Amino acid sequence: MPRIGAKFWEDALLGKKSSVSSLSGDIRRLETKNAKLIRINCAGEIYITTEQSLSHYPQTLLGNPLKRAKYFNEREGTYYFDRNQEIFSSILYFYQSPGTFRPPEYFDAVVIDEELEFFEIDLVKMTEDYDEEKRRAAKPVVLTGKEKVHRTITDPGYNRVSFVWAAIDMICILITITTMVVESITEYKEYFVDPFETPLKMGIYSLDVFINTFFTIDLLIKFATWPQKKLFFKKILNILDILAVLPFYVELVVLATTTGAAPTQFMALKVCRIVRVVRVLKIVRHSRQLTEVMEVVASAKEEFVMLIGIVSLVVLLVGSIMYFIETLSSSQDQFQSILHGCWWGVVTITTVGYGDLSPKSGLGRLFGSLVVLFGIVVLAFPMTIIISKFQDAFTIKKLKGNKEMTQKLREIAERSVCLRTKRSSTISTNGKLPKLHEEIR
Fold first, then answer.
1. Which residues contact residue 85 at a Cβ distance below 8 angstroms, ignoring those fewer than 6 apart?
2. 413-423 pLDDT, tens per residue?
3. What is the SS3 assignment for 84?
């Protein structure tokens, strides 16, 4: 952004050619574009820009001549703003780029928001309004029946039916979670056994059948309308949907084939009830933030494998050493095997410390103290890598969002230029320097 000293403007307004010639290059460039110069004084710092740059966003304070008129100082011939200079440089660059807003990194976000609010620059609202206008102006996309059904099932904001379907899905998930918790309470377990014994038990079982039927229909419709069937099973959320309904049908098969009190069949039912916990994760589909976290976790699987591998090796090492140390002690009565030592190692390295196992010998206690300190270091290295992975993933998503917003703001500026070009007529300067004070009248 060009900055011109106050001495130049005093000489220019008085008609002195010596000062005009000192910046002839910039002025001629502006003359060729028939641009009107705008002189802005921000807390004593002079900024020079063109009315064409500011008019990219006419709904803002600087872009609207009527709004900025009350800040004009006739004596100095400038628009005066007693605001932060460094942030104003970013704001002015937003008009000149146009659409790119790069605030100083060392400023607090609250201060930046206050400056943007003063100059009536609402980046989010501007992009949302533009999206709405673009959506209204765009030609309606003709979807096939299959695509309409797919969007109804997967996009809650597509229409009213999709919203109702998503609401029913959410209610079913909450009911499932509630019944799963209640079923684990000893006093209420009898209500979930032998469903045909009383009307209340029958009602609870019927509700469970309805919920599982709904989940099954939802899963089948998604699979039937999925664009590429091979990619369906690569989505984590789709796998969770399958695991959520699978236990119900396994239970039906086990109960239908039961001829006696076979222990293996009862074990299968217990496993199915454990797998039902996966239904809790279905709630991830209804939260954009949780979905992003799941995607980041999936992208960091190599780091998690590395963490598990390092911890496993260290646990096996310290567990074996502690077992042999305590075996040499006559007071050893807890570490009966290396597996007991490994359990102690997991609890100690993760700094949980249940206290169910603890060394009794002096050498064992010394080694245990070293394991506590060493365990912090063992967890710190892989956890740092995982945290860095999360930060990088969220930074990339933020940059993508900023890039999309910048592109939309540039399109808004281009549209403003097109509208202004249609309304304005060509102004000829005849090779003469225009009077710089006329642009404010």
1. 42, 43, 44, 45
2. 666 666 555 55
3. coil
